[in-house]
Design goal:
single chain; alpha/beta; Rossmann fold; eight-stranded mixed beta sheet; three-stranded antiparallel beta sheet; 34% helix; globular
């Protein structure tokens, strides 16, 4: 396991030295996650319609997507409903790094304080073993896999892992991290999806759009948030 190589801006935001890119921005980062990943996948509305939602993610990073999803789930889902969140990350942050990041989260987005504290109390277990952790009285289960995205998801697909309901494709952009975005990954994601599985990603790069199409997804360009011109959303259609 290789811990993320991070430098810190004066604002407290982390910068990846490995990929020369930012993890998030305190200027609209939570709103971007809400729009790109939750809204494009029909959340939080879907939390009320299904007893058990399964979400997959490539690129856990600081965990911002997970934290926002957990926050919205706890706010909208009936108490009997559960969330299963699977994420894969090759270069995880250390516990100390994550503590520093979450101090920024709590200051910028106080609504995340409770989920930040709950997750941090379990984070060392994520790094020390591959067991799933259960949060908030077992309502949320997180399976954080420390591995290369394509390799790890291909292994799950080959093992016929249970299909997921939605995907967040995050991580650094194809230009910064091309190894994260190739056909082996898209094919594995398709195998781990069912008819009606949705997907979204902040990037609108052609290599991603073509890769998802080749894997069998129906892909749509969506106007992006803020200065981002376009993002991608997708769905796995029924086989004709």
């Amino acid at each position: 396991m290789t811990i993320a190589n991070i430098s810190w801006l004066a604002s407290g935001e982390p910068f990846s030295e490995q990929f020369q890119d930012f993890y998030f921005s305190t200027d609209g980062g939570l709103q971007e996650t809400d729009f790109v990943f939750l809204q494009q996948n029909g959340f939080p509305q879907r939390f009320t319609h299904s007893n058990h939602i399964k979400i997959g993610e490539t690129g856990f990073g600081t965990g911002l997507n997970f934290l926002v999803t957990a926050c919205r789930f706890l706010s909208h889902a009936p108490e009997k409903n559960t969330l299963d969140y699977l994420s894969i990350e090759k270069y995880p942050l250390s516990y100390t790094q994550l503590q520093q990041v979450y101090s920024v989260f709590k200051k910028s987005w106080p609504e995340l304080t409770m989920v930040c504290n709950e997750f941090l109390s379990h984070y060392s277990g994520c790094l020390n073993n591959s067991k799933k952790i259960k949060l908030f009285n077992n309502r949320i289960q997180l399976n954080l896999i420390i591995d290369d995205a394509a390799t790890g998801l291909k292994q799950l697909a080959d093992a016929r892992h249970q299909a997921l309901d939605a995907w967040y494709l995050d991580g650094f952009s194809p230009a910064k991290n091309p190894g994260m975005w190739h056909q082996v990954l898209f094919t594995a994601i398709a195998k781990l999806s069912r008819t009606g599985t949705t997907l979204s990603t902040f990037t609108s790069a052609g290599v991603v759009r073509r890769g998802l199409l080749e894997a069998g997804f129906k892909v749509t360009k969506v106007p992006g948030p803020g200065k981002k011109r376009e993002i991608l959303s997708a769905i796995k259609p029924a086989v004709p």
